[in-house]
Amino acid sequence: MSPLRSRLPSIRPSLARPSLRPLHNLSSSTSTPKPTTGFVTLEKIEEEKSPNYHPANFYPVHIGEILASKYQVASKLAYDASSTTWLCRHLQEKAFFTIKICKAGPLPQNELAISNLLSNADTSYEARKYARYIIQSFEIIAPDGTPFCCLVYPPYGMSYSEFQRKLPGAQIDKEVAQRVIQFVLFSLDFMHYHGVVHTNVTLNAIRQGIVDYKSLAHIVYNQSKHPSARKVSDDRNIYFSQPIPFCDGMPVLSGLGGARLGRAAGKHSGRTIALGVHSAPEVILDMEWDCKVDIWAVGTTIWTLINDDDLFPAPKDGIYNEEQHLAELVVIMGPPPVEFLKRSSSTKCERYWDEQGNWKGSIPIWDQPLETRVKRFKGQDKELLLNLLRKIFRWVPEERPTAEELVFDEFLMQSVDMEGLK
């Protein structure tokens, strides 16, 4: 089955030309004695809050510095436990790029390989534009000699998770939610055709596309006039991330760092992706899995987009709990087929179900049909949404639709201008 070839609108960003003023470190006089007491212990900020944080594992970026002789650092955009992300301006092309500077350690070979595969795939498929690829990588060396890998991406707007938090009542319009999911499905259809499983489809991985780059120029201008707040130490500045502006371009699926590559219809064995509230049952139960884990995650993402909560929160004492998650699945889908339980390579199924597929876990099963959870919609909207979710939330992965089949689901097609797709 070939990927979709829908005539989706293209993004043609203009090139902003802001001026950047490099920042220089001020050196202190060596003739003045330095105090050794009376220091205030500052709170940890940004990447310092990451588990097992060690300064030497992060490159000491200074706003205004030039990377690889052509990218000038303009502002910090984000951080996580494994990287910091920066808005940079290409000095020759006068264009904006996002650069992720990875934590010291092995190169992200998996993401590099997948980005190379997808970015060089058939350019006639419009859907390839709606995934976030690495467009270049290079290495920089810290003052202490440590090498760091830099990944260059086109810039994008805020995540839909952040966008949702900014809305009154955290409610995204139904039509916007439908459009976002369709573009995610276009992107997944393209990935799955080329044997790539994303494995981490969430609102955090879906970002707003950028049409007008003036918003990025505004970030740069503000940085030159009002430098970012920062925490200064002997060997580095730790900057506060700047808000990413709202953008109204087409949604883009990012986060290929956890993606897996295999045959188009290939299976992956064992638990090689992390557990969480978006995990499909075959992953929780240590079974072989394939691209249908992405379809499951599309279902949980639809729910979050529309309801601003998790369909399967799986909490116990404030943290994710596997048994709680499985109990929630039984509540929504009923008992799993016995043949499905036999696929597990571990003893988990024996722990939670008897030989007839009846639940025997320590958490009692309660009565809460899916239709009672849908509060926002009534009438036809509610019925169409329920029909869509029931297609997706199936124990057996093979019974879930493909990304291509879901694109044209009746609920998602409600607000589509069919004339624009011809």
Automatic annotation (TrEMBL):
Annotated GO CC locations: nucleus
Extract the Gene3D superfamilies matched here. Phosphorylase Kinase, domain 1, Transferase(Phosphotransferase) domain 1
Keyword Cytoplasm on this protein?
A: no
Instruction: Provide a Gene Ontology MF annotation, just one.
Output: protein serine/threonine kinase activity
User: Which GO terms fall under biological process for this protein?
Assistant: regulation of RNA splicing
User: Which PROSITE patterns does the UniProt record give?
Assistant: PROTEIN_KINASE_DOM
Q: Write one Pfam family the protein is assigned to.
A: Pkinase
The UniProt entry, under InterPro entries, shows: CLK_kinases, Kinase-like_dom_sf, Prot_kinase_dom
Q: Where is the composition biased (Low complexity)?
A: 27-37
What are the UniProt keywords, alphabetically? Answer: ATP-binding, Kinase, Nucleotide-binding, Serine/threonine-protein kinase, Transferase
Return the annotated region ranges for Disordered.
1-37
Residue span, Protein kinase domain:
71-412
PANTHER family found in the cross-reference section? SERINE/THREONINE-PROTEIN KINASE DOA-RELATED, SERINE_THREONINE-PROTEIN KINASE DOA
Name of this protein: Protein kinase
